[in-house]
Amino acid sequence: MSIVDDIFAAFGGNNALAEATNIPPQTVSDWRRKGAVNIPQWRRRDVLDAAQRLGIPLSTEAARYLAGETPSEARAA
After folding, report:
1. What is the residue-wise DSSP string for the chain?
2. Which of 6, 33, 58, 62 is buried most, with the most CB atoms less than 10 Å from its CB?
3. What is the pTM of this model?
């Protein structure tokens, strides 16, 4: 499973992530459907902030990915 899949699971799915970040559900859904599972770099801080605000636990790898501390590759090493 990819880091991005872990993030979606932590939030409870596409719609929950969209609601938590005030990003349109279709946009969030597209992040998983475009072949390469990836959250655009310019949206990652929004997702991290929402997780912190809502107390959603993220793995260390997921938090680092969202904070931009790992390469843009969405797969766990």
Report:
1. --HHHHHHHHHTSHHHHHHHHT--HHHHHHHHHSSS----HHHHHHHHHHHHHHT----HHHHHHHTT-S-S--S--
2. 62
3. 0.84
Q: Structure tokens of 36?
A: 């390469």
pLDDT in tens, 57-72: 999 999 999 998 865 5
DSSP helix, strand, coil percent of the chain (3-state; round to 5): 60, 0, 40
The pair of three-digit structure tokens given for residue 74, joined into one six-digit string: 């969405």
First to last CA, the chain: 11
- Residue 32: both structure tokens together: 């998983």
Q: What is the dihedral of CA 37, 42, 46, 48, to 10 degrees?
A: 60
Q: How many whole angstroms separate alpha carbon 46 and alpha carbon 59?
A: 17
